């Protein structure tokens, strides 16, 4: 009894729940500080990443993380969810407002945890197992969640549950081949066509794909995860006049937390094969696929944080930001072209640039390693005709995160120069290290800290990056 009393009094006096992170877990606190330092001293060119505002991060780390709220507003499976209903309804309304959508025509599900499972929810909501999907091939700029498979392996689980046919770029123009897409659609007869990409630098013609969908009576899913921010700011053409369903992640160009939104058409009519009108309300199909089909309790700290980011997306500052994203991306592309880089499709219309390094006799894996060693984050990426995703010829870069830090066009010219220097180092090291990528990485791990060119470039990058504040941190 005495021991119990003393333990009880200790817990009342010094409850562990009141400790700061630094007090409770200095190891994790130290790693977070290490990451903050890395972000401040690095140039981030990964087009699928961004920085959120302090307000977005504050909502993400709030008390809204501690409650289960399974179900939908007004139909929860737990008590005490009155505030959560208000937050979800507000997030839905803000999502529609962000893209100037009428609630009589569009609805939105805000519960999916991220983009890939959101796409899978759409497929399972609208399709039956083994139904057919037509989507952009991964080596030509598509995404794994669109159903990638090789001759010997179903890489994405999507291709195990559904039959997937890829459409591709014209290998001469390196643009989406809409004529070939139509030929494939009429032969394959898909039930759903995906219009979207993760490494395509040009504008997608949603109207052309809508016509192809109509010709084979297929749903049109627009995956705008990369370009949603630019579309919300009316800087790129919108898919909403043409799509049946639109999916976007909420980080990337939207500058929110890692989550996703699924927009679906409501209140319209479709005609069956006999010409009779049938209901075309997709709400129940999508909502039931999300819950209870694929998820249990939604992450309400994320939904709350998304709502904050969506409110920010209606500000004049957000529109100016998206305009700068496009200008900076174009500047980066132009400066790389001046330095004799080859760009897939010859340039860019959006936030990203896809470099083909094959003419420089170097691959994306080696260049990515060198750039990481000098505090520049990029990602290796396949380009048309590539055979390996581990050692591809491409390098994917984007203007989104550094524009959030206030970097302008002139400074993106400096970034292009850093990239050029990094590629030159990679070319030199390749000749010294050995024939295999692992030989290259082993050489870099052993010699990178002493190599004068690597250390000089890293010093220049740190000096450059440290000038620009990191949103949410500084």
Question: What does this molecule look like?
Answer:
This protein has about 475 residues and is of the alpha/beta class. It folds into 2 domains: about 65-310, 3-Layer(aba) Sandwich (Aspartate Aminotransferase, domain 2), CATH 3.40.640.10; about 320-465, Aspartate Aminotransferase, domain 1. Helices cover about 45% and strands about 15% of the residues. The protein has helices at about 1-15, 20-25, 25-40, 55-60, 80-100, 115-125, 160, 180-190, 205-215, 230, 285-295, 300-310, 315-340, 365-375, 400-405, 410-435, 435-445, 450-465; strands spanning about 45, 70, 75, 105-110, 130-135, 165, 190-195, 220-225, 245-250, 260-265, 270, 275-280, 340-345, 350-355, 375, 380, 395-400. Strands 4-10-9-8-7-5-6 form a 7-stranded mixed beta sheet, with helices on both faces. A 4-stranded antiparallel beta sheet has the order 13-14-17-16. Helix 14 crosses helix 16. The longest helix is centred in the C-terminal third of the chain and has 25 residues, at about 410-435. The radius of gyration is 24 Å and the shape is globular. The mean pLDDT is about 95.
